[in-house]
Amino acid sequence: MNCNIKKALICKNVPSFTIDTARVATYTPKAGDVGVFSVLPDSSGYIMNENGIACPIFEGDCLLLAFGSRYATNQFEGYVPDAPISRCQLLGRGGVAGLLKSSNANFKVIPPELELIGYATDHNNQVINTIQEHELDKFNSDYTRARVILSVGSSMDSGKTTTAAWLCGGLKRSGYRVAYLKLTGTAFPKDAMLALSRGADYAADFSFFGYPSTYLLDRQTLLDLYQSLVNLACDAVDPDYIVIEIADGLLQRETNLLLKDQAFMSTVHSMILSCGDSLGVLSGLTLLEEMAFPPFAVSGLFTASTLLIDEVQRHVRTPILSLNDLLNGEATRLLDAMSLRAIAN
Questions:
Q1: Is the same domain home to 85 and 220?
Q2: Which residue in 111, 119, 127, 165 is deepest, having the highest Cβ count within 10 Å?
């Protein structure tokens, strides 16, 4: 093979390896399995490289990627192949490869087409896998060193990442130590970097343990992953608050599973809901109230419009927080008041 290999972010911890080309015709990959791929003609784009820097890719480039599935309602749906394959697509710029199943009709980006050259194997001739499940801590619902705030959204691109980052900034300005964690989604460093830039003392996501994505993970793995990320944050900065973002919308598989899990929710101090429009706020609040966990506030893209804020205010009593409110102390005031009421009760 006569090309330098561009290593994607999810493969940053992959050591030296051998390329096994013979296995392409016979091996069915698993999530996290690492392969070397060639970018096919008429394909371009970029990946986040092993240092988290955007790296353009071009026809003929060789990429080190990991297989994974993806659930992104505004972009792609794709899966780890269930049989040996030689061609697939780049599903996520953090380095996730898989078979594209569907695309949002309004999303005009065409995922790069890839040819699998071979699997990356170790000194024992085993296919290298990025997932470090053996390093996960077991979930413990009694472990409450910090107050956990969930940032959830009515849908993808409803503003929950920005809400979480600005909430981190507001808590930091109020004198609290704060960590940001992204529990579910597809590997990509932008969200954690935004939270750090906005003021979080620490930020990490599921890809720390080698998961290309969390789509289709079972309940226990999600809970153990949650516990492990919380432990990382607590050991790193001993935060007063941990803001945890859960990807996509309230109806997404993993989000819905976690919100309905009593053991998980027993560890959560409060929740903030982000929405893109006024009707999303009403339906989102109704759904969360049915789950017996109403959010302490609503925020998100709809707060960019005074008219949408007015629509919502006529129908709900839940506080509405703009980005300035999140940053300048209003969210902290509400959370402090919740904590005082909890102590009084």
A1: no
A2: 165
